[in-house]
Amino acid sequence: MRFVEKKESDKTAKLKSEETYKLLKDIVVRKNKSEIKETIYRDVYKTVDGNRSRVEDKLSLTYYNKCAYCERICKADIEHYRPKLKVSEDSSHDGYYWLCYEWTNLIPSCITCNRDGGKHNHFPILGTRVFNPPELVNRELDLEKFKANKSPLIDEKPYLLHPEIDNPDLFFEFVLDDNHKGIRIKGIDNEGRGNKTIEICKLNRQEVVLDRKKLIVDDFSDVVRSVFYELSNQSINEEEFSKFLSIIIKGFFAKAKDEKLSHTLLRKFIIKSSENFKSIIIPFLPDKVQDIVLECFNCILSDN
Q1: What would the mean pLDDT of 91-101 be, rounded to a whole number?
Q2: pLDDT tens, residue by residue, 131-165
């Protein structure tokens, strides 16, 4: 998960249209969630390569085709952050049906984070649950109160972190799993919102734990091992090895700042401190180069 700034101006024309507003108003007034239209919050269109969604296209502008939760590049569902039809934790709740077309409630999520044993209709909170839409003002909808970062919704204090509201840096850290075959995400906040988000979206499922290590740690380790092999064969000398190492680590820093890549939060965590780099990266390097790699990392870290 990474913090995202999604622009209101990026909403699709259909979501912004007067027609959609009227349909939404009718849903709110009649409290009839059966009138929710998938054709509006998906807005599908045809291409020669198959059907696409205008809403997905707009979401990908800020999420870079990644799942909002596990940060893997994927074909994403258009996920309703607050479930529109029902809430698993409260059978008396009719769902947040009035947020069906709300831009701050639409988030891209991979199938597993959203459906296959993941979030689905789960939405536990720490605060007071909102059961009904805001009352009409002069017979019109007060759309400001539909936004996830405004009262009354923000006062629910959801356990599930919202990537456009909550800074993930304050809620997560990463550790190697017990057998060093993958990297696990771990909640660090006192209220347990980080760990609950991990639980809801299954962020430590096997394929994600392995993917984090493969795409980040193994990628870095393989390049270092290749250069070390050249040093061992005396194809390069120690001075040349140090120069190559500096280039490799600077490239690692550059990738950590490229938010289009997968697992942005992990990449940033690793370069945040010498301790993080040592705990995640160093164990996978040859013993003979661990100290020099760490020393080189610390020099580059001090310059960033």
Answers
A1: 97
A2: 999 999 999 999 999 999 999 999 999 999 999 99
The DSSP secondary structure of the chain, one letter per residue, reads -------GGGS-HHHHSHHHHHHHHHHHHHT-GGG--HHHHH-EEEETTEEEEHHHHHHHHHHTTB-TTT--B---EEEESS-SS-BTTBTT----GGGTT-GGGEEEE-HHHHTSSSSTT---BSSPPP-SPPPPBTTB--GGGGSTTSTTGGGG-BSS--TTTS-GGGTEEEEE-TTSSSEEEEE-STTSHHHHHHHHHTTT-HHHHHHHIIIIIIHHHHHHHHHHHHHHTTSS-HHHHHHHHHHHHHHHHHHHT-TTSS-HHHHHHHHH-HHHHHHHTGGGS-HHHHHHHHHHHHHHHHH-
> What's residue 49's pLDDT?
86
Percent of the chain with pLDDT over 90: 93
